[in-house]
Design a protein that fits this description.
With 475 residues, the protein is α/β, with parallel strands linked by helices. The protein has helices at residues 39-56, 61-77, 79-90, 94-114, 150-163, 178-190, 204-212, 226-238, 261-273, 290-305, 324-340, 391-400, 415-424; strands at residues 5-7, 10-12, 19-24, 29-35, 129-137, 140-144, 167-171, 197-199, 217-223, 243-246, 251-255, 283-289, 343-346, 363-366, 383-389, 407-411, 429-432, 451-452, 465-473. The longest helix has 21 residues, at 94-114. The protein is globular and about 75 Å long. The N and C termini lie far apart (61 Å). The chain binds NADP nicotinamide-adenine-dinucleotide phosphate. NADP nicotinamide-adenine-dinucleotide phosphate (NAP) binds next to helix 7 and helix 8.
């Protein structure tokens, strides 16, 4: 299954027979061989989705609900298998993979419940006409996903598109294809007709670009880096199609001296080092009010030094990074931070007891100036910077002073202050006295370079529906 593409409900070989390897980041061993699709393979997948759309769009909401609920039940039944595969392929601790699978189940259930609630409007015009809107599925949709939450991300947009009556082609990140391919098997077993979902593996610049530029694709949902997102937006413009861009972040956590500091610390550590920091919404900058600063940094050092780093199957606090190249990138940021004069508080290197695998110790820098690269650029790894501030104005200037605007958090007991900051923070999601509050029913997305549009929640259905206005004259 893993060395093939999923087209028309069949696992099929790529036409040119090209392959590439899937590597376990904890052992550096090959765990599977994958199909490397070319533009012709992508065309086959898109045409399959295009053919399937004619009948799929006419299925009743009840039929789509039943299939989506069946898919949810099958994902749940294969929970352990999927989670183990995700951990082997991506490196994350097993309990996190299990939580990601549980989230995917919720995504299918949520979308299943919405199929018969996608309502249009009637609009008063005059006494002799009836005017109403009808929401229609856009057609074939493309879903291009990153490597940090392979299964959960594929299951974030796909169920919504299917519930809306669209068909789909999914292109997972090259580092982490296995669980997305397994999803093909699950959806076929659930009873989705041939062509409704297709999955192509291959390089972003070849297969991904061919998918995003295909004229029969009517909407694109992309999750990944800013640079690729900008290219996707250009491709989308070639055929005037809507695009959802879920991009990076440099998310600030504002910690005030009056906050429950123990809670704030717990959330800093969880926010910064879940999935070894490879999280778009992770805490990457913690801004601490000056009276609490020294205490906070010291307590943070103690907690971070106690974190364990080991293969994901051992379920330590942090697994390996996804690839050797990515570990080099993270190490480069550490060197740059040192060169710029930041002070290393914890970590900063490969763990000495780990010979194989792309591990990196959880790392904290303080004495960080907001102008430093380490305070502005997304690292997407286990690296956290601590910055002191005095008062709301300075906190806001630092928090908003980057190109990103994905998530932000405020820790304080002063509700009035929290609400003023909620109003003024430039972010798509703001959390007060907690981190990572983004269940499937709430909109997820960013402002500025963090993206365009929203996934999750009812807002996401707009990505896959278009409005047709109908006017009927009867008088
Ligand atoms: P990436 O390099 O941009 O890749 C994302 C996806 O795009 C992969 O499937 C990739 O395929 C594909 N791709 C690359 N070049 C392409 C092209 N020219 N045309 C079409 N597709 C192309 O991002 P990543 O390194 O996988 O993911 C990390 C980034 O994702 C971080 O910036 C992170 O913040 C962001 N992210 C955002 C969210 C969110 O919800 N906002 C969630 C998760 C991650 P290949 O793998 O084959 O290159």
């Amino acid at each position: 299954m893993f060395d093939q593409l999923f087209i028309d409900n069949e696992f099929v070989a790529p036409a040119a027979g090209r392959r590439f390897d899937a590597i376990d980041p904890a052992t550096e061993q090959r765990i599977a061989t994958l199909a490397l699709a070319d533009a012709g393979d992508v065309d086959r997948a898109v045409r399959s989705a295009h053919r399937a759309f004619a009948a799929w769009r006419r299925t009743t909401p009840a039929e789509r609900t039943r299939l989506l609920l069946k898919a949810a039940a099958l994902v749940e039944a294969r929970r352990d298998e999927i989670a183990r595969l995700e951990t082997l392929d991506m490196g994350k601790p097993l309990r996190e993979s299990l939580a990601n699978v549980a989230r995917a189940v919720r995504s299918f259930e949520y979308a299943a419940g919405a199929t018969d609630k996608l309502e249009g409007q009637s609009i008063p015009v005059d006494a002799r006409s009836f005017n109403f809107t009808h929401l229609e599925p856009v057609g074939v949709t493309a879903h291009i996903t990153p490597w940090n939450y392979p299964f959960a991300n594929a299951c974030r947009s796909l169920p919504v598109a299917l519930a809306a009556g669209c068909t789909a082609v999914v292109k997972p990140a090259s580092e982490t294809c296995l669980t997305t391919l397994l999803l093909g098997d699950v959806l076929r077993e659930a009873g989705f007709p041939p062509g409704v979902v297709n999955i192509v593996t291959g390089s972003g610049t070849e297969a991904g670009a061919a998918l995003a530029r295909h004229p029969l694709v009517r909407a694109i949902t992309f999750t990944g880096s800013v640079g690729t997102g900008q290219r996707i937006a250009q491709y989308a413009s070639e055929h005037v199609r809507p695009v959802v861009l879920e991009l990076g972040g440099k998310n600030p956590q504002l910690v005030y001296a009056d906050a429950d500091l123990d809670l704030a610390l717990r959330e800093t550590v969880r926010g910064a080092f879940t999935n070894a920091g490879q999280v778009c919404t992770g805490v990457s900058r913690v801004l601490v009010e000056r009276p609490a600063y020294t205490r906070y940094v010291e307590a943070l050092r103690e907690r971070v030094e106690a974190l364990t780093v080991a293969p994901g199957l051992d379920d330590a606090d942090l697994g390996p990074l996804v690839s050797e190249a990515h570990r080099r990138t993270v190490a480069g940021h550490v060197s740059a931070a040192r060169d710029e004069g930041a002070r290393l508080v914890a970590g900063g290197s490969v763990p000495p007891d780990r010979g194989r695998g792309w591990f990196f110790r959880p790392t904290v820098f303080d004495q960080v100036d907001p102008a430093m690269r380490i305070a502005r650029e997304e690292v997407f790894g286990p690296l956290l910077v601590v910055i002191p501030f005095d008062g709301d104005e300075e906190a806001l200037a630092i928090a908003n002073g980057v190109e990103f605007g994905l998530a932000a958090g405020i820790f304080t007991r002063d509700l009035g202050r929290a609400m003023r900051l909620v109003r003024d923070l430039e972010a798509g999601m703001v959390w007060v006295n907690e981190w990572f509050q983004s269940p499937v029913q709430v909109p997820h997305g960013g402002v500025k370079h963090s993206g365009i549009g929203r996934e999750q929640g009812l807002a996401a259905f707009a990505n896959y529906l278009q409005t047709k206005d109908v006017a009927i004259r009867f008088g």
